[in-house]
Write a structure and sequence with these properties.
206 residues, seven-stranded mixed sheet, 7 helices, 7 strands, 20% strand, globular, methyltransferase, S-adenosyl-L-methionine, SAM_O-MeTrfase, methyltransferase activity
Amino acid sequence: MDIMSYIKNLNTKDEIFSDVYQYGIENNVPIIDSDALTVVKHLLKISGARNYLEIGTAIGYSGLHLLSVFPDSKLITIEIDEEKHQTALSNFENHRVSERVTAIKGDAKTFEPDALYESLDFLFIDASKGNNQLFFDKYSKYIKKGGLIIVDNILLRGQIVEEELSSRNRRKLREKVNDFNQKLAESNHETSYLPVGDGLLVITKG
């Protein structure tokens, strides 16, 4: 066992939404890695954040876990895919958190924020990776100063450092994600890059 596998095993907790997790696995729906999820929830606990905005609902798996940290937390989440949106609504209903969720069916790239986005203290970006910069620029302004922002999949399953990628599209994606990572590292925000799951970028809004 290498050192990263050792750490991953320690960070991985028992699954509390096994039905949603299993559905994701069986239907090839990308979901956040268990060890990264543990870190995200720990950071929420430390920060005390209770008002969340999530870009990329998918089937509601990460949203359910976010809401499990504090019983009085609330989630606004945006998903472009109709089928995933409907599945997420069912999962929120089945796990009795619907009253704490505002689930929006729409394209986060063009969606126009409104009064929903007030006093938010956590932004979770987990949608199309090539749009990380767009999502950060568009939605980070709704997070209060000192609030928490986390971006998932910043390592692209290791492709972020691969010198040779046969696919032109993958090379373009790598370039976009790397440019975003570098830009945030050079910004005035406090940032940490964590090699858990597929990589987390943790930002404290300045």
